[in-house]
Amino acid sequence: MKVGLLIGRENTFPQAFIDRVNEMGTGVTAELIRLGGTHLDDDIEYSVIVDRMSHEAPYYRAYLKKAVADGVTVINNPFWWSADDKFFECIVAQKLGVAVPKTVVLPTKTYEADVIDESLRNLVFPMPWQDFINYTGLPAVLKPAVGGGWKNVSIVHSLEELWRAYDASGHLLMILQEFIKFENYARCFVIGQDQVLVSRYDPARSHWDRYVPGDDGLDPELRQRIVDDCVTLNRALGYDMNTVEFAIRDGVPYAIDFLNPAPDFDQRSITPGYFEWVVQHMADLVIERALHPPAPPTDLRWQAMMDPSLPTHDV
Ligand SMILES: Nc1ncnc2c1ncn2[C@@H]1O[C@H](COP(=O)(O)OP(=O)(O)OP(=O)(O)O)[C@@H](O)[C@H]1O
Ligand SMILES: [Mg+2]
Fold first, then answer.
1. What CATH number does the domain located at 2-83 have?
2. Which of 14, 22, 27, 189 is 20 to 30 A from 103, comparing alpha carbons?
3. At what angle do helices 272-291 and 13-23 cross, to 10 degrees?
């Protein structure tokens, strides 16, 4: 049985993960996938595929949908990943009892050239900006509904700053969010929906120093709530490889970003201790999935989790 890996421009996780799976001697082997166009009738030789790049390479996403249709376990489910966004995730979180910042989704600033005023007669103009900031307060965060790497994330302190940031957002779908003035911050690795490693994370530092090794500084009850929230969110969304960030204000953990289905696993940024945990848990996960294939994804898990009267199969 083989595990295939699709990667981006990362240099530490891929080889460490492949070596770990191959060294474990379970009969499951791992390798980088090589692709160059896919036929309808191609056989896919992998039992499990770990996808760390299809969000930036659409052909990979198309290949992975075929893989799911052919019975391959893909981490993470490409269908759900394609449908997901940070506004919808806040809705799911709120309905499942996970605290989230007050959030507004906004019409995009720009459209394709042939979309003219007449095409947008459902939209009110001007937008009720004052209402938005009455709801979120200031400062607020304007950020893409789907995004990563802190790209196009702005913290705005006034309507003027909000307009400037919005005007620069172009075609991107943006959300405006209450800024959580935190006393503490945690970022959690979540593997296989229930393996959670809570780490201290300091967003004020440079990219390479944000993960703080050692004690996370959280009291046990708060840490347990964070772990439980991580499991709730990842079970609801169906992600097997994700990171979940929490800003802690007045002892309440607010989920800030939990749409990280190809999280940064670079040894240098996540530090060697967390890296070792991630490599081992990812290796354990793919071996388990290769040896005991789960039923293919059939439904939207969050629906069953929100409504106890619905059948709870596959949750
Ligand atoms: N509502 C908020 N309250 C406080 N801080 C926030 C909020 N939203 C975002 N931030 C800050 O901005 C950072 C980037 O936001 P976010 O994580 O949503 O973007 P991202 O591009 O997905 O980042 P990453 O690549 O680290 O996942 C967060 O780590 C956090 O420090
Ligand atoms: Mg992110």
1. 3.40.50.20
2. 189
3. 50
Please work out whether the CB of residue 137 comes within 6 Å of at least one atom of ligand 1.
Answer: no
- Ligand closest to 247 (CA) is 1
Q: Ligand 1 test: best mutation among 245, 249, 252, most atoms within 8 Å of CB?
A: 245
Ligand 1 close to Cβ of residue 150 (< 6 A): yes
Residue 133, both tokens: 């900031």
Distance set, CA 212 to CA 148, 198, 227, 274 (Å): 20, 11, 18, 10
Residue nearest to atom 30 of ligand 1 (CA): 203
Supply the CATH classification number for the domain 102-178: 3.30.1490.20
Judging by beta carbons within 10 Å of its beta carbon (0-12, 13-18, 19+), is residue 250 exposed, middle or buried?
exposed
CA of 150 to the centre of ligand 1 (A): 7
pLDDT of 315 strictly over 80:
no
pLDDT tens profile 180-229: 999 999 999 999 999 999 999 999 999 999 999 988 889 999 999 999 99
Q: Which CATH architecture has domain 184-260?
A: 2-Layer Sandwich (3.30)
Per-residue confidence at 104, pLDDT binned at 50, 70, 90?
very high
Residue 300's pLDDT band (boundaries 50, 70, 90)? low
Cα–Cα distance measured from residue 131 to residue 238, given in angstroms and rounded to the nearest whole number: 34
List the chain domain ranges.
2-83, 102-178, 184-260
The answer, yes or no, to whether any atom of ligand 1 lies below 6 A from the CB of 111, is no
For residues 13-25, give the mean pLDDT: 98
Domains 2-83 and 184-260 share a fold: no
Q: What is the pLDDT of residues 227-258, one digit of tens each?
A: 999 999 999 999 999 999 999 999 999 999 99
Residue 74's pLDDT band (boundaries 50, 70, 90)? very high
The residue nearest atom 28 of ligand 1, judged by CA position, is 203
Sequence letter at residue 113: A
Task: Check if 24 has its Cβ closer than 6 Å to any atom of ligand 1.
Answer: no
How many angstroms separate the Cα of 307 from the Cα of each of 239, 301, 310? 20, 10, 6
In testing the pocket of ligand 1, which one of 132, 141, 208 has its CB within 8 Å of the most ligand atoms? Answer: 141
